Each structure stands twice: as C-alpha cells, then as structure tokens.
From TrEMBL, chains A, B:
Subcellular location, record wording: Peroxisome
Major subcellular location class: other
Biological processes per GO annotation: fatty acid beta-oxidation using acyl-CoA oxidase; lipid homeostasis
Family per record: Belongs to the acyl-CoA oxidase family.
Pfam families: ACOX, ACOX_C_alpha1, Acyl-CoA_ox_N
Essential cofactor(s): FAD
Record-annotated Acyl-CoA oxidase C-alpha1 domain positions: 279-440
Lineage, highest ranks first: Eukaryota, Metazoa, Ecdysozoa, Arthropoda, Chelicerata
Database matches in InterPro entries: ACOX_C_alpha1, Acyl-CoA_ox_N, Acyl-CoA_Oxase/DH_mid-dom_sf, Acyl-CoA_oxidase, Acyl-CoA_oxidase_C, AcylCo_DH-like_C, AcylCoA_DH/ox_N_sf, AcylCoA_DH/oxidase_NM_dom_sf
Name used for this protein in its record: Acyl-coenzyme A oxidase
Species of the source: Galendromus occidentalis
Binding-site residues for FAD, renumbered to this chain: T143, G182
Catalytic residues identified in the record: E425 (proton acceptor)
Alphabetical keyword list: ATP-binding, FAD, Fatty acid metabolism, Flavoprotein, Lipid metabolism, Nucleotide-binding, Oxidoreductase, Peroxisome
Length: 661, 661
C-alpha cells in the first residue's frame, strides 16, 4: 500500500497555493524543530524498515493473524529500540505502526507503572528488572464483568490466611470475573490484580496484588486460574483483552504490593499515608489521551481532506466540469473546523502537561488545591474531546462517501480506536457529572479554585455582560471576541442547573434524588464550562506562540471558524446570553467567508501534520494522492480474491445453477 | 448464543410493571394482528430451524467464512420459502437471520426489478424465468470507482457497432471501473451494466445493458471481463461487493434493455416516452429504507434497554445499594427518546407507503405534482432518518459502556449496517440539498405543491405566530402543542436561507455560486422542514390509531418526550421563533417528569418490538436477560481461545522469555 508513486497533479496544485510554510506549522505541532527531527529519525528507523512493511493490508487479517502480526512487530520494535531513552517514544512509534494498541501496551503503560507506584523497594527489586526486559509480561486486572467505572463495587476478594501467611484470591461470582484487561488473554504471564482486601474478618477495600498467571516454562495457566481472551471487538483487534477467573488462588503475603498499605504477617492492616498519588496517575492518563485524540483526528482529517481534493463529483456551475468536492461549502464546513480540533487538542495537551507538572510540584510544596481542579478539568476534557474527536472522525469518514466505509480507507479503524476512549478510562457521562459536581462544590465553597484558575469568573453569581456581536472582527480578534460568549454560556448553564437542584430540593426531593433528576442539565453545564475552557486556551495558544505572521493568520482563521461553528451548531446556548437573532445572519456570512479564505491552505494545513503514509495506512489519504490506483491494488489482495472461483461456488452455487438445467 | 434459559428476576419485575398490553403495541407496530401472526409463523419456520443456528457467533467468522455462511443460509432460506408469496417477506426473514445484506440481495432487489422495469417483453421472456429461479444470479452495476451519486458523470461506454450489430462495452479509465455493486464480486454471473450509449457518433446518456460475466459451466469470467471483490468493509461483510473492468466486451444489440429507449439494427436511437418511472423506483427504495431503519434502531434500543435493567453500577443514594443504570436520568434521556424514533419511523413508513401508492395512482390519472413532492420529501426523510437512526444506535452502543464495544453485543454490526445508509442510495448531504432546492422552487412557484400537501404553510411569506409555551399540557396535547414550534422553525430556516441566496446574488454572485456559498444553511433549512414533517406525522399517528387509552397514554408520553428532546437539543432554532428563555426551565422539568413517568414501561415498550433472540443476536439484549452467562460462553468460543497456548507463544514469546533466563 505504501509503494512510492509520483504525486498527482491535483495535490501538486493544492500545495502550490499555500500562503504559509508547512514546516513551520509542523515544528509548532511537534513542539519544536528538534522534536520534529527526532520524530523523523525514528520514522527512518522504523517506517522505512522492510520488516515492518505488510504484504497485505493488516485490516485483511483474521483476528488471530492480526494478534500474531502485532505481537511479532511489537517485539521487533522493542528489540530495535532498546537504546532509545524514552519508552513513550517507542510506544508512539509502535502504535503508529500498528494502528492499534499493541499486545504489550498495558504491560508498559499500566503494569510497570503499577509496580513503580505500589510495590515497595524489595518488591521492585524482585519484579521490575524482569518486567523491564520482558522476561515477565504483565497485565493490570481491575474491571470485572459486572463492574467498570464504579471501583468500590468490584467483587474479587483477597482474604488473608495468617496460618499460611498467604492471600487467597477469589472471583466469587460470574459477575466478578476480571474482564477487559489488555494483554491478559494470551500474552501476559503475570497480572496486578485489584481485589478487596479482607483480613481478620474486616474488609479494607481495593488493593493491588501480584499474581502469576502462567507457568514460565509452558505458558499454561497455573492451578485455580481460568484465563482467556474475551473475543473480537469493534476495534483494537491486536490487544488480547482477557478474562480471569480466580478459584481460591493462593499467593504469598508479600505479593500484596505494599508501598502504601500493608498487611503484617499476623494479619494486621496498616493504612496508607495518602491516596493523592492515585489521583495523579488518573490525571496523567487523561492528559496523554488528549495527545492520542489529536493524533487520531489529524489522521482522519488528513485522509478526508486529501481525498476531497482528488475526488471530483457533480458541478457547481452547470457545464463547467466536475468539481473537486473540497470546493463544496458543505464539505468545507465538515472538514475545516476539524483541523481546528486537531490544533486545539495539541495546544491543550501541551498546556495541560505543564499544569500537571506544576500540580505535582505544588503537591510536594503542600499546595493541595491544584490537583483536584486539574482532575475535574481533565475529566471533563477527556469526555468532551473524546466525544468531539470520535464524532469528527466519523464526519471525515462519511465525507469520503461510500469509499470511507471500506477498511482500506483507514477510517473505520480510526473511528473504532477513538470512540473506545468514550467508554474507557471513565465513561464520558460519568466524567461530565464528576466535573459538574466539582464546579457546583466550588460555588458553595466546598472546593476552592486555585490561585490562577481560569474558572474564577464562575464564582460570581452575576455574569459579566457580553459585548454586542461585532461582525467586523476577523481572525485572532474575531476568535478572541467569541470567547466571551463561551464564558457567558458556561456561567448560565451552571447557574441554571444549580437553580434546578435547589428547586427540586425545595419541592421535597433529597439532594441525591435531586441530583439524579438533574443529570441531563448537569452534563450540559459541565459541557459548557469545558467548551469555554477549550475556547479560551485555544485562542491564547494561537496568540502566544512565537510564529510568523503568515502562519498566525492561517491559524487564527481556523480558530475563529472552529469557535464560530461551536456557536452556530449550538445557538440555543448562546442566544440565552446576549447573542441576538440578527447576529445569526452575520455569523453565517462570516462562516462563508472563512470557508472560502481557508480553502487554498486546506491541503497544506493537513500536510503540516506530516503524517507518514504508514501512519495513515489509507488508500484514500496517501501523500501522492494516487487514490484509485491504491484502491484497485488493495482490492486485488482481498482474501476473497485469492481464488477467482471461490469454494462456495462448488458447494452452493454450482448445484443450484445446474440442478435446474 | 440462543439457548433457552430462565428469565432473570430483574426482567420479570420490569415486565410486571407494564401499564399497557405489550401485545397491543406489537400488533400496532406490525400493522395488525394478522401481520403479527404471519411474522410468528415465519419465525417458527426459520428461527427455530436447526439449520439456521450458528455454532459460534457469526461475528467470529473470517471474511470468507462469513460470505460462505451467508450464501449457504440464503439459498436454504429461498429453498424453504419457495411457496411463500411475497419475496419481501423472504428478504426480511433472510436479513433478520443473516444480520446483513445477503449475497443475493441485489439480485432480488435490483437486478430482477431492473429486468422488469427496463427489459421489453421478449427480453423478459428470455431472462426473467432463469432469474426468478436463480439459474442466473445478477448484479446491478452502476457506481464506479470515481463516480457515485452524480449519475451523469459515469464513464463506462457502450458503443454501437452497426457492422456486427453489437455493443462494445468499455471502462476506459481506472476511475471508470464499476465499484461497489453487491453480489458482483463472486456470486453473480450476469449484471445489468449502466453505461453511456454511443451510436452514430452521438452520446445519448446512461442506459442499461445486460452483460453475462461468467461462464455458466465453470463460473470463470468471460474474455474481456475482469471481475472481483472490493475488499472488507466496516460492515455488510456477507455482500460480496465487487468491481468490474470491461475491456471491449461485445454483446448483441438486443442485450440493451429496450423497454424504454431503443437502438435499431442500423444504429438509430429511439427516445423513451418518459422518465417518470425511474423517479418512482428511487422513491420506493427510500420508503423501504425507513422500514429498515426502524427495524435496526428497534434492535439497538431493545438491547440497550434490557441491558440497562440488568446492569447495576454505583449508587444514587449513598449506601442504598447499587442502582440499575436504567434508573439514572442521563441513561433514560439517551434511550427513551429512541423508542420514540422507532415509533415515528414505523408510522412514517406506513404513511409514506400509502402516499407512494397514491402518487402512482395519480400518475396514471395524469396528476403529476404528487411524485416530485414525494420524491423531495422522501429524499430528505432518508437523510434525516438515516442520520438519526445511526447516531441513535451509536448512543445505544455507548450506553452499554465498554461491553457495547464487543462484537457479541450485536451493536457494532447494527451501527455499521445502518450508518452505511447515510452514504448509499444518495449521499445524505446531497439529499438535504435536493430537498431544499425543491422547497425553494416551491416558494418561487417553479414547483407546485400537491393539493393535500402538508407543506403549504411554507408558501406564506409571513409565518403564523406561535402560541406561548404551555407547560401544563401533557401527553398527546403536549406533543401536539410542540408541533407549532417545529412548523415555525421550518418556516424561519427556509426564509433565512432564501434571504441569504438573494443577498449573495445582490452582492454579485451568480446563482450557482450563491447556492454553493449557502450549502450549510440550505442543509439546515431542509433539516428543519423534514423535522417538522416527522413531528406532525408522528403526533397524528399517535392520535389517529385505533388503540386502547392505556396504550395511547404511553405512546403519547414517548412522543412528547421525543419532540421535547428535538427542541431541547436544538434550542437555537426554536428560540428564534417564539420560544422564550424562561420556557427552558419548564421544558427541563417536563423532560424530568416524562423520564420518570416512562420508566416503568421501558422494558415492556422494547418487548413490544417482539424481536426474536436470533434477530437481536446479542449477548446483552436477549429476552431472558442472562447477560453475563452469555458473554462468558461467547468468550470461550472466541477464535483466540481455540488453543490455550497460542502459536504466537512458541514463535515470539517463548524465545523472548527464555533467551534471558
């Protein structure tokens, strides 16, 4: 699929239209020139290596083949990358090559960090070296068949038996079976199992335990352990998500990870000093997710934009010849704001990573109010951004018409991988509700906003009046002008639901029931607050980056369009806070203008993401634009085309055709 | 997956809460009691027949296996159903059993109808008997690699050679290759090929030609024919969508289907009398699509609602025990309006089918204004309903949390099958634009609305004033009260874009360019008009059906909720036409009340769709509610679990683990 071909004329022409230097934007999106260079080196190391080239598109592989292919490549990647310093780099490359979570993703992202975070020094010395060199591969078994987001509901037990100084692990019911952990099905020989700790007849809640799952010589499951794969999913085929049934499995006392809580040999439970650290890990994972979402939506919008420059269909002016579909306004309105989504996600990721580091520094200095706020915001951002990114990818896919339905477009897999993030790492609705709970507690003073919080305006019961909509403002000024509407809408939605909660309680509902009866509006409130947060930081990111005026002009157009679409598609929220019905006409015209102005830079803008063809893995989106050639070549490799006359003919069709001769 | 199990207590309790007779609703949704009985007979005939039971879930099959399985079952179904009178019945059963388009779907839905519609008597006598008994299986080859919705752009040519009295068929370029036709890849031995007719140096546009593709004895492609399958897609795995390259393929003159247009032996072209008939077929297909959409969304909402009654997660009142997730307001708000979507789609299908029959009668009587209007409305309805249904299915899938991501939930396949309808049979954006073009032409008098048209109020340049929002109105009265807002919004959006078109033309744009620069608002306008159309007909359907008061109460609650959500999620549109900011509070409270009132009937409402477990094919949604048992059993059958230690261990993991011992 990645064979070198000449670039087609249409894309050459598109690229000639750029009003900015694509490389400058690439540096900005990567972080800086150094980071781009480093990425290119890795690409050279991996993407051009023949052992990572697939003979046929990986989407054509069966479930088993896909797993095996991914495992084989992953191990080669790690072998080749032993001298690379940053494991995140390796993961990024591996994910990009595999287009999927690798079968050892959880090992490096959850098992090893769990050891670092929960194992004491002695335990780390025992397991960590083997884990880092993959002599043991571990999973992280928390979610159960009957329990996900609500951790306290987990049912697996670890009961201390002081006579043998062992823990007895047990999944007492069908619904307690561990379900979903990546790598658990077929790859891992160890797992950190989260279970309810019982000792001396008391339950102390969920704690981590190291459990060896498989014999190190034969890879067969150990006695009492029933382990397997949970079956194929909509996406993430290469990760062998698994199940684990534990039938009175005994592990030594010191297999409980004891950096924090401990159980002494006589069964005495010793409480952990603090649980703030877990909090931090959850935030960190959500920050990383923004990066993944930015990566995925940039892949989708690159594919759809390039394809839309190639594809010609119908005519704008009758008889004037068929039009590149990128010239239809409806198509531009679908795609260009999504370029903005990539930018805001990338910018937000950088900002949040800084905040995360700051919050950790604060924590060490005893400043405790940064992390809860960051946690609330990162929860809401995870929900809003995974919603927007997955919906955006589906918009890209549908914008490619029927061809986007084919696996070789690369888009169905991107959608599946991305939409998975709406339910994992905290289900989105639950996260929206968490964020609004935090914000409402800020209003009543139960939580305190940090010194530099961007949400302090919410504490003022009276919203600041908005300035009238000014249709003359364009670009950065125009984008900046729109942020006030987002702020006012956030304020209104939050106080709207606060009033509803009070009203329901005044009518006699308990606060719990009032809360449940307001969930729809609570989700809307946190959505509005997070949307504001995103808008504000987006505009600042565009304004404050050190870039050329040419580039800033283009970025500001995209930013203004993104913010305008956010209003135009949700007018109700903004008509309530000072936007006038008459302004809608001006907005419509401004959108029309921006869609025209951005058009010449459309392909250069997606080129700036600088995504290698192997990373795109799409017959529609390659750099050379040879769409139809690639589609035809891929079709010839389809499994059904291995034989001209398929076996089903002899079995079913031939008897039918000939019986009636 | 469909083994009989006892019904779980939770669903027994849910079913005991019903305030109406589920069977009465089943009759209504099927059409009448007779139709329900007939459906049950067919179910007995097919669903209980062991030859249609799968040993493992079909989602676990490879692409080849899935095709072979579907082909085998389809042929058995047709054999068993030879005595059934209505082929649509057979197709419905087949689709329900296969959860996919069958490999002979296109044969019966397009190839045979094409023969009936385009072949003259002689030609029908020659091909139709063989087609009906499947001695020949045909495809319908229209779409090309480079052209879809824009028919005039098709590039395949059929050039008449009067010296041999043959047509020479040719796909001159890569982009002209026929691409997508169902059954074309491996199953069909014939195709109706749509090609540009050339004779005596003149081009007469697209016409249908009968082309034999494969040898009837060997099934090998005939000379000049390059045919194959296009490769796996996001869904519809069993349909062997194909490609077809024609290299100077000669066919006799009388293989041109000549019921309408003709070419005489000397190459003279004779025009068809009329092209209205093609128009009718397109409408018919779009009407049938509503039925399919209703079927698919009803499957998804049944699965998600039953699962939500089983699944317990977290607590509403701290310490009071875990809650059925169906008791969370946010979950109800996701699912209950989708029950309404099923109802309105089912009702709309019945109404539109009547209108279609009426339009045909009108046509025969020389009344010509019914069909164009029906065509415009059915285009818009197809777009709006396929959008709503596919998004609704995805809402159901995500409402099941991570488990909805597993193929055995049945939901990923339902989503893929349904979202395909957003791009096939006319891409949705193109259809929205077609509908608005028709409506705008009505405003200027270029089209005439039919005598009984429901859209006549649009012709009045001044909208009727809306009555103030009355929060006291509940149920049917409440739903009826909301329709006026939908009407006013439709009116406003249409005149909004008309004003925009005039403004742009006044600024100097040509009408073509003004049109293109208004596409965003044009889509919004037809969306609003069709949303009104749906709302109005939904309320009438609830009001006019002959049903018990108990049932009408429940249907009216669902209808009011559906219409309220339509407003609540799109407030901007309605705040512009008389809805007040203060009304939003009342709406929120009314939604809260309805979500509570509908709750006891949630499971009975989805039970009324009366979907056989085989039709649902979901581990989460079966009638007995034994969710976790089924999930665990299915997981054990996963392809990766055939061996406890997979081959990849010996190949890749063992060397890794042991090399470092």
């Amino acid at each position: 699929m990645n064979r070198k071909r000449p670039v087609c004329d249409q894309l050459l022409q598109e690229r000639a239209k750029a009003t900015f230097q694509t490389l400058e934007l690439t540096y900005l999106l990567d972080g800086d020139e150094e980071k781009t260079k480093r990425r290119k080196e890795l690409e050279k190391l991996f993407h051009d290596d023949p052992q990572f080239q697939d003979e046929i598109p990986t989407v054509y592989l069966s479930h088993e083949e896909a797993y095996e292919n991914a495992l084989s490549k992953t191990l080669k990647i790690y072998q080749k990358a032993l001298d690379l310093s940053d494991p995140r780099e390796i993961l990024t490359v591996a994910d990009a090559i595999l287009h999927d979570a690798t079968p050892v993703h959880v090992h490096f992202v959850m098992f090893v960090p769990a050891l670092m975070g929960h194992a004491n020094e002695e335990q780390q010395a025992k397991w960590l070296p083997d884990a880092l060199t993959m002599r043991i591969i571990g999973s992280y078994a928390q979610t159960e068949l009957g329990h996900g987001t609500f951790i306290r509901g987990l049912e697996t037990t670890a009961t201390y038996d002081e006579t043998t100084q062992e823990f007895v692990l047990e999944t007492p019911k069908l619904s307690s079976i561990k379900w979903w952990p990546g790598s658990l099905g077929k790859t891992a020989n160890h797992a950190v199992v989260m279970a309810k700790l019982w000792t001396k007849g008391e339950c102390y809640g969920i704690h981590p335990f190291m459990v060896q799952l498989r014999d190190l010589n034969t890879h067969q499951p150990l006695p009492g352990i029933n382990v397997g794969e949970i079956g194929p999913k909509m996406g993430l085929r290469s990760a062998d998500n698994g199940f684990l049934k534990l039938d009175k499995v005994r592990i030594p006392r010191d297999n409980m990870l004891m950096k924090n809580a401990q159980v002494t040999p006589d069964g005495t439970y010793i409480k952990p000093r603090s649980d703030k650290l877990n909090y931090g890990t959850m935030v960190f994972v959500r920050v990383l997710l923004l990066d993944m979402l930015a990566f995925n939506i940039s892949r989708a919008v690159t594919i759809a934009t390039r394809y839309s420059a190639i594809r010609r269909q119908s005519e704008i002016v009758a008889g004037a010849g068929e039009t590149q579909i990128l010239d239809y306004q409806a198509q531009r309105y679908k795609l260009f704001p999504l370029i903005g989504l990539c930018h805001v996600l990338r910018g937000m990721f950088t900002i949040l990573m800084e905040m995360y580091k700051q919050a950790n520094t604060d924590l060490e200095r005893g400043v405790l109010d940064t992390l809860p706020e960051l946690h609330a915001i990162s929860s809401g951002l995870k929900a809003l951004c995974s919603d927007q990114a997955s919906k955006g990818i589906e918009v890209c896919r549908l914008a490619c018409g029927g061809h986007g339905f084919m696996l070789i477009s690369g888009l169905p897999r991107l959608y599946a991988t991305t939409v998975a993030a709406c339910t994992y790492e905290g289900e989105n609705t639950v996260l929206y509700l968490q964020t609004s709970r935090f914000l409402l507690k800020c209003l009543t003073g139960q939580h305190k906003l940090g010194q530099h919080s961007q949400l302090k305006f919410l504490l003022n019961p009276v919203a600041s009046p908005v300035q009238p909509f000014n249709k003359q403002l364009y670009g950065l000024e125009g984008a900046s002008h729109l942020v006030q509407y987002y702020a006012a809408a956030a304020h209104r939605e939050l106080y709207f639901v606060e009033a509803k909660l009070k009203r329901l309680q005044a009518e006699g509902l308990t606060s719990d029931n009032a809360w449940n009866s307001s969930q729809v509006d609570l989700c809307r409130a946190s959505h509005a607050c997070i949307q504001y947060y995103l808008a504000k930081n987006y505009v600042e990111w565009v304004a404050q980056n050190k870039i050329s005026p040419e580039l800033r002009t283009v970025l500001a157009q995209i930013c203004q369009l993104y913010l305008l679409q956010g209003i135009y598609e949700n007018l109700g929220r903004f008509l309530q806070v000072g936007l006038k019905t008459e302004d809608i006409t001006s907005m419509s015209d401004l959108i029309t203008r921006l869609l025209d102005d951005i058009r010449p830079n459309a392909v250069p803008l997606v080129d700036s993401f600088d995504l290698h063809d192997m990373v795109l893995s799409s017959a529609l989106g390659a750099y050379d634009g040879q769409v139809y050639e690639r589609m035809y070549e891929c079709a010839l490799q389809s499994p059904l085309n291995k034989k001209q006359v398929v076996d089903a003919y002899g079995k079913y069709l031939e008897p039918l055709f000939k019986s009636q001769l």
